[in-house]
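Problem 12. The chain below contains 203 residues. Write out its predicted structure in token notation.
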Amino acid sequence: MSVAAIVLAAGASRRMGSPKPLLDWGGRPLIAWELEQLMASSVDEIVIVTGAHADEVRRSLGPTGARYCVFNPRWAQGRATSLALGAQTLIGPDRSPPEAVVLQNVDQPTRADIIDRLIDELRRTRAPVVQPEFAGHGGHPVILSNTLLRELAMANERTLGLRGLLERHPAYRVPMDEPIVRLDLNTPDLLDEARRLLGVAPR
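Solution.
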């Protein structure tokens, strides 16, 4: 099964007070750590959608990592525009779309083994959407079958982006004893616990 990942890293990070992709994560930027996890997983292709702070994000990844980046000029119009651009990149002309897509927000870091378990569940169940669950609540990342790629490519704020897609196509939930799947790094007070859960050394 060919698998791609879309990483959303376009937001302004206003509540965090500094760009989330550039947060110190064990001595390297968070976005670089996430790229390492994706590359260690069974993901074959990666698209990092940038917007605010795009130049700094590209520089933080170096020449190799920067080639995964695509810039969303409409990033300020909402996250759905970045989702749509990521999907459009994967279904462009003269290419075969992946069979599955990992959707990951930069402020919701995860491990390679969690990504692989969810991909395996999608392969096993043939569900259109697979989502981890912790303590009865849906988590991340979300894995989509390519049957939903064109719908994702048309996402906008009116259709509520990923939330709307999950309402139209309820996910197959995978219970996990992993609080990591509920991480959401919105404010600085959450960082130390997130680093601890992911085994990242403090600054």
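Discussion. The helical segments are 30-40, 54-66, 79-90, 112-125, 149-153, 161-168, 191-197. Students who got a different answer should revisit the alignment rule from Section 12.3.
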